[in-house]
């Protein structure tokens, strides 16, 4: 397995935000993570990406324990993520936000940092522009990130995450704030990334997007994993229907 959690847990006060969760994500898979508001999805991702400390259990990448590593160390090992509440450098250009994402992976490269900016990193700049093209933001490269519409900021977050050349890309509600044609393009982008061998973990309230993109889906409720399987299996699960009272969300 490329990415695993074993009995991963985190409490806040008395709340079991993530409660003994086992996940196993195979290399090259698109893995969906769904669950009602407050189910623990973002907390689980924060534990995996090193943005929160676990109080129990472990995270493994390629079989090696990475539970205590800092976010930048996990980035260097190939885990990249976007944030539910977009975290961009709003005063930097769209282009520079992507370059910063690339730097996150290469920060230990001292020589690169010592080379004067102008002569540096043409391949990086070309690659950054290529990523902006992929997410449909090439023409906005010179705009300030803070000036972008919300859906565009979400796409820029994906380009920034991709700039670190991840093996695993974790997306926390990437379609939030996107219109149907934007989320359709997002679906195409995710398919293309998987075809290139990137493993995706997708958190989404748009269950149709998850079911249409992911081969495997896990469902959280009150911090516990209540179901896991193919989209069809998860749809058929009584526990899932109950968690989503009304059940229309997963129908
Ligand atoms: N930093 C924090 N301090 C205290 N409680 C927290 C913190 N982060 C999350 N929680 C609590 O942990 C639980 C899980 O929250 P989390 O944000 O992980 O859920 P989620 O599944 O991502 O929800 P949503 O779909 O609304 O994004 C909730 O009860 C939440 O209030
Ligand atoms: Mg969340």
TL;DR?
The chain is α/β, with parallel strands linked by helices and 251 residues long. The chain contains 10 helices and 10 strands.
Secondary structure layout plus pairing:
Blueprint: E1 3-12, E2 15-25, E3 30-34, H1 41-48, E4 56-61, E5 64-65, H2 71-76, E6 79-81, H3 94-106, H4 110-114, H5 122-134, H6 150-162, E7 168-172, H7 180-195, E8 199-203, H8 207-213, E9 216-221, E10 224-229, H9 231-236, H10 238-243
Helix pairs in contact: 3-5, 3-6, 5-6
The chain binds adenosine-5'-triphosphate and magnesium ion (MG).
Shape: globular
Rounded mean pLDDT is: 90
Q: Trace the largest sheet across and list its strands.
A: 6-7-8-3-9-10
Cα radius of gyration in angstroms: 18 Å
Report the CATH superfamily of the largest domain. P-loop containing nucleotide triphosphate hydrolases
Low-confidence stretches: none
End-to-end C-alpha gap: 30 Å
Q: How many runs of DSSP E, i.e. beta strands?
A: 10
Largest sheet: 6 strands, mixed
Task: Quickly give the structural class.
Answer: alpha/beta
Question: Could you please describe the fold and organization of this structure?
Answer:
The chain has 251 residues and is an alpha/beta fold. The chain has two domains: 3-78 and 166-250, P-loop containing nucleotide triphosphate hydrolases (Rossmann fold); 93-160, no CATH class. It has helices at 41-48, 71-76, 94-106, 110-114, 122-134, 150-162, 180-195, 207-213, 231-236, 238-243; strands at residues 3-12, 15-25, 30-34, 56-61, 64-65, 79-81, 168-172, 199-203, 216-221, 224-229. The protein has a six-stranded mixed sheet, sandwiched between helices. The radius of gyration is 18 Å and the shape is globular. The structure holds adenosine-5'-triphosphate (ATP) and magnesium ion (MG). Adenosine-5'-triphosphate (ATP) binds at residues 12, 15, 17, 35, 37-43, 84.
């Amino acid at each position: 397995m490329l990415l695993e959690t074993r009995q991963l847990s985190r409490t806040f006060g008395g709340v079991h935000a993530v409660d003994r969760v086992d996940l196993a994500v195979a290399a090259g898979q698109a893995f969906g993570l769904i669950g009602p508001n407050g189910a623990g999805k973002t907390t689980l991702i924060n534990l995996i990406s090193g943005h929160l400390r676990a109080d129990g259990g472990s995270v493994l990448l390629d079989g090696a324990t990475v539970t205590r590593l800092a976010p930048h160390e996990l980035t260097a090992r190939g885990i990249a993520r976007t944030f539910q509440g977009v975290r961009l450098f709003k005063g930097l250009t769209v282009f520079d936000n992507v370059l910063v994402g690339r730097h996150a992976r290469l920060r230990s490269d001292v020589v690169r940092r010592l080379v004067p900016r102008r002569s540096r990193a043409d391949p990086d700049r070309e690659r950054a522009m290529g990523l902006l093209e992929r997410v449909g933001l090439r023409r906005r490269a010179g705009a300030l990130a803070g000036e972008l519409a919300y859906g565009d900021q979400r796409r820029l977050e994906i380009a920034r995450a991709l700039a670190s050349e991840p093996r695993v890309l974790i997306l926390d509600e990437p379609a939030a704030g996107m219109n149907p044609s934007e989320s359709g393009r997002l679906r195409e982008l995710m398919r293309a990334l998987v075809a290139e061998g990137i493993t995706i973990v997708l958190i989404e309230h748009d269950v149709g997007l998850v079911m249409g993109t992911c081969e495997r889906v896990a469902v959280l409720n009150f911090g516990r994993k209540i179901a896991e399987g193919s989209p069809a299996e998860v749809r058929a699960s009584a526990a899932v229907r109950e968690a989503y009272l009304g059940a229309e969300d997963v129908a």
